[in-house]
Amino acid sequence: MTSFIPLEQYMKEIEMRLVDSISSSVPQTWNIPASLRESMEYSLLAGGKRLRPLLVIAAAEAVGGQREAALPIAQAVEMIHTYSLIHDDLPAMDNDDFRRGKPTNHKVFGEAMAILAGDGLLTHAFHQVVQASRLYNVPAEATLDIIEELAIYAGPSGMVGGQVADMQGEQGITDLETLQYIHQHKTGDLIVFSLKAGGRVSGASEAQLAALAKFGQCIGLAFQIRDDILDLVGDEGKLGKKVQSDVKQEKVTYPYFIGLEASQAELERLTLAAKEAVSDGSIPFPERLLQIADFLTHRDH
Ligand code: GRG
């Protein structure tokens, strides 16, 4: 466990370690077309909050494990997340021109290369998970569990399924339950994966994994509700994008169904439930996770 530095400094440390290591994660000795490497690195290094790597490492440390062993998993989840954003921005999906304050991948490299850069990141993520075992002696059985769960939480029954439900339901969603299904899978599942995988690196017990999963489910939904609220009442300068875009695009959101005040109350309820899940005594060092839950509730971008 590292000494208990302020959360902002902790996040900065993890971001720096991630950025430093992620650019060399595709070995220079591999004979890869330069344009593919450039396109993958462009999006990987374009910034972002690095929330999922933060959760992998915070969960590993909360269970009493070492940061370094969790790093390949943190890289892997950021690769999956980045691929999903590249593909989500494509003309066939959301058709966005900017992401993380920069032109989207397909605007710079063309559509075909953006698709392939996403494919490359998705595939390479599985290579990186294996490195936790090869380089840091994470037991093969735990690594197998992490690989299996990455396919479950990021694949058809997870993030990809959530994206499809969102696509098919666009503008036609009539109930909160369907919206919850979309949020749970499209956004929440990768967050749950990150926490459980971090725990697995540190040899978490079943009770600890269940506590981390519950924490992830709650903050995952809370994260999305906060997104919806920020789109209505956020500061454009801090968000780096126009507010009220959900209203303009007639997107159904939490505030659309239950109003702004009730959405805020639900956000607070979920944050409390998340904090309770890791405060039941099963997690030896829950303090960082508690801080992260509060940080996400109050984030302004
Ligand atoms: C294309 C299979 C496929 C999936 C796409 C993640 C996703 C699924 C789409 C992104 C669109 C979106 C606004 C999703 C909901 C919230 C979300 C996951 C936002 C992006 O995550 P952040 O805020 O992004 O952590 P940064 O850039 O900070 O990493």
Automatic annotation (TrEMBL):
Top-level division of the source organism's lineage: Bacteria
Molecular functions (GO terms): (2E,6E)-farnesyl diphosphate synthase activity; dimethylallyltranstransferase activity; geranylgeranyl diphosphate synthase activity
Keyword Isomerase: no
Swiss-Prot/TrEMBL keywords: Isoprene biosynthesis, Magnesium, Metal-binding, Transferase
InterPro entries given in the database record: Isoprenoid_synthase_dom_sf, Polyprenyl_synt, Polyprenyl_synt_CS, Prenyl_diphosphate_synthase
Uppermost EC category: transferase
Any one Pfam family match given in the protein's UniProt record, by short name: polyprenyl_synt
Reported cofactor(s): Mg(2+)
EC number: 2.5.1.1, 2.5.1.10, 2.5.1.29
Database matches in NCBIfam families: FPPsyn (NF045485)
Family that this chain belongs to: Belongs to the FPP/GGPP synthase family.
Protein name, per record: Geranylgeranyl diphosphate synthase type II
Species of origin: Paenibacillus turicensis
